[in-house]
Specification:
The protein is α+β, with helices and mostly antiparallel strands. It contains 13 helices and 24 strands.
Length: 674
């Protein structure tokens, strides 16, 4: 089989002129462009496309099929295709239509091969032999989420470019929704995989936003929201300063996602940045460029952190962005180098506004210092399109779909004492078409109450904080407050149920300590604490010589069992509204046998939850790296929660992936108000 420029057979979709012929010069919503002129950027893209097409776009396996060869990387036997590469091709070719007169013919051939090699769930078999064109990987044929995403996005690009692919796209997105999306909304690693893990390099938020605009029959905004939450939860715990995400993540269906074990899915350290997650700054930077700092706030923030980290790691030389990087932004190994690691940072560097770093990466794109094959050259092709400003967004051009948005409140209900205030997050999302300005208002307030929004209007995809302030005379009761969002497309509403309880009497605050059994000295009777352990042990236990109490004879002892375990204790407390400050304090000791200075397999968190179980805030995060001699006291402000009934929760989690174990011990807790 050889690389050809046309198919022998008549394509399924008759060729028509492209609606968005290359080049399509885009004005991104944030960041900088490379210093090279637009004409020079266009010419560089064309040169790379000619090289990529001649080397990797193959006419086969049948006369009406094309595939992207994995030549140079041995990702499939006999340089056959993988679904990831097929997705790359189905993105690249529609974007180059107009420059490439045969683009639609080639796209139809790429799509035909996908249709002829679907697994039992209607998604592409992820790995095919280059000679037999049969699935050759072990087990029942299955699909990979990254390829599935790019194929779906490619169908939307083709539909906007030429028309006629709507039915194919909708069928594909339905299969993707049914088999690649976990129940909580995060992306699985493959269609037949568990609901507990994810691969951050699959998190193509620009693709998901296009899905939301194109397909309103599925709640893609749920996937977007959960993906952003997951990335925030993970990076806050494991890479707060650098925004790095490991190749694979486990516990993705919880609020405590963590790095996968070292060889979780591939024969490399999957618990750090590797050949999968080098693609993360490309995807996050692209979403930030296209959708701006409000809609893509999470991606923008993490793209800036990762760009700065990798610039520092490499000394500003993209060749020294290493394919394997620890989560604290130090090289795992400097002996392994690949151009795609530096190339992929380009969109993040642009979004962060770093001109010199952007120019350095742009200049590297014209080279191939390490002889990268299919993987690096395909990534380079797509990064070139983004950095040149030729990467147009199918969600905002030629949609034929009216813009619309959705509205939500989180939490959906709350309680407050008369005379105090309650806060709730009002979220918006693009339901179809383009993002638009949404103004916010509230009605149905109880007497004596007022409502304010910060900000009073948002761009759909953003959020606002609603503060409902009650007066001392506001009657007790439950009130359904209607939040209304109004935009050019129309209005939508969401409900927040506010329960007002009788005032605690006003007047001066009585200073007090509010926690029951604060030093755990009630012994086996742990109330009013509630406790849990995945191994069945009660964390509230008698002190030992190995783990002595700070005072008294009892402690709360989390983990330390040398095996995977999650332990919690929690207590619900009503914070009075007529006090001005509330402070949590406790004494903590951490010891560990984990032999690492960077990895954090064992973690401990201190959180505040509302009555619905929603986390209002994480007060403190610790790990095996915070080991200490003796006890140290920690204090956190609870003043923002005065007037509310909240649950204080301590959680220790141990994965036991490095062979050691960590003991988290606390004692002498207190919540003092005055």
């Amino acid at each position: 089989m050889t690389a050809l420029t046309a198919l022998a057979a008549v394509p399924a979709h008759a060729a028509t002129g492209p609606a968005m012929p290359f080049p399509q010069h885009q004005t991104y919503k944030v960041g900088v462009m490379p210093s090279a002129s637009q004409s020079a950027r266009d010419a560089a893209v064309e040169k790379q496309y000619d090289s990529w097409k001649a080397t990797y776009l193959v006419h086969g396996c049948a006369s009406n099929e094309y595939y992207v060869s994995t030549k140079g990387d041995s990702d499939a036997t006999n340089n056959g295709p993988v679904s990831e590469g097929q997705g790359y091709g189905m993105n690249i070719v529609p974007l180059m239509a107009g420059y490439d007169a045969n683009a639609q013919t080639e796209f139809n051939g790429l799509w035909q091969l996908v249709k002829d090699h679907e697994d039992q769930w209607g998604l592409m078999q992820w790995q095919l032999d280059g000679k037999t064109c049969k699935y050759y990987s072990s087990g029942t044929p299955d699909a990979a989420t990254d390829g599935d995403l790019d194929i779906g996005y490619g169908l939307i690009l083709a539909d906007k470019q030429w028309g006629g692919y709507t039915s194919d796209a909708m069928t594909w997105l339905t299969s993707f929704w049914n088999h690649d999306v976990a129940p909580d909304g995060h992306l699985k690693c493959e269609d037949d995989g568990p609901n507990t893990d994810t691969r951050p390099s699959d998190q193509m938020l620009d693709h998901l936003r296009a899905f939301a605009a194109y397909d309103t029959t599925h709640d893609w905004n749920k996937v977007i929201t959960r993906t952003q939450q997951l990335d925030t939860e993970y990076t806050q715990a494991y890479s707060p300063n650098d925004g790095l995400l490991s190749d694979f993540v486990v516990n993705a269906n919880t609020t405590s996602p963590s790095p996968a074990p070292a060889n979780y899915q591939e024969d490399q350290p999957d618990n750090i940045v590797g050949y999968n997650s080098i693609r993360v700054p490309w995807h996050m930077g692209t979403d930030a460029l296209e959708n701006g700092t409000t809609v893509a706030a999470t991606e923008y923030s993490l793209a800036k952190l990762e760009s700065a980290c990798l610039k520092a790691e490499s000394g500003g030389n993209p060749q020294n962005v290493y394919p394997h990087t620890n989560l604290n932004c130090t090289p795992y190994s400097t002996s392994d180098q690949a151009e795609e690691a530096g190339d992929a940072v380009g969109p993040a560097a642009m979004a962060s506004g770093d001109q010199s770093w952007t120019d350095a990466i742009w200049n590297q794109l014209a080279t191939n210092p390490f002889g990268d094959g299919y993987y690096g050259e395909s990534i380079k092709m797509l990064v070139y399109l983004v950095m040149a400003g030729d990467y147009w967004n199918p969600a905002t051009v030629g949609t034929g779909t009216s813009s619309d948005f959705s509205l939500s409140t989180s939490p959906a209900s709350g309680s407050v004492a008369a005379g105090s205030a309650a806060t709730v997050t009002v979220g918006t999302a693009v339901a179809s078409g383009s993002a638009e300005s949404v103004s916010l208002a509230a009605s149905g307030l109880p007497s004596g109450a007022t409502a304010s929004f910060s900000p009073a209007s948002v761009t759909s995809g953003g959020s606002s904080t609603l503060t409902v302030s009650t007066s001392a005379t506001t009657p007790a009761g439950t009130y359904p407050i209607t939040v209304t969002g109004t935009a050019a497309s129309g209005s939508h509403t969401a409900t927040y149920s506010l329960t007002v309880t009788a005032s605690s009497g006003g007047g001066s605050c009585t200073a007090a300590q509010l926690l029951g059994n604060p030093g755990f000295e009630n012994g086996a009777t742990t109330a009013p604490w509630t406790a849990s352990s995945t191994l069945g042990f009660n964390p509230i236990t008698q002190a030992t010589s190995a783990e002595p109490a700070h005072s008294g004879s009892w402690i709360a002892w989390f983990d330390g069992n040398g095996t995977a375990d999650t332990d919690t204790i929690a207590q619900t407390v009503s914070l009075p509204s007529n006090c001005t400050t509330a402070t949590l304090s406790y004494w903590q000791h951490i010891d560990t046998t984990e032999n690492t200075t960077t990895a954090t397999p064992d973690t401990f968190s201190v959180q505040v939850l509302n009555s619905a179980g929603t986390v209002l805030g994480t007060l403190g995060s610790f790990s095996n790296l915070n080991k200490n001699t003796g006890y140290a006291q920690h204090s956190f402000s609870l003043t923002p929660y005065l007037g509310q009934t909240v649950t204080l929760k301590f959680t220790g989690a141990e994965t036991d992936k490095n062979g050691g174990t960590t003991d988290f011990v606390i004692d002498d807790t207190a919540i003092n108000v005055d």
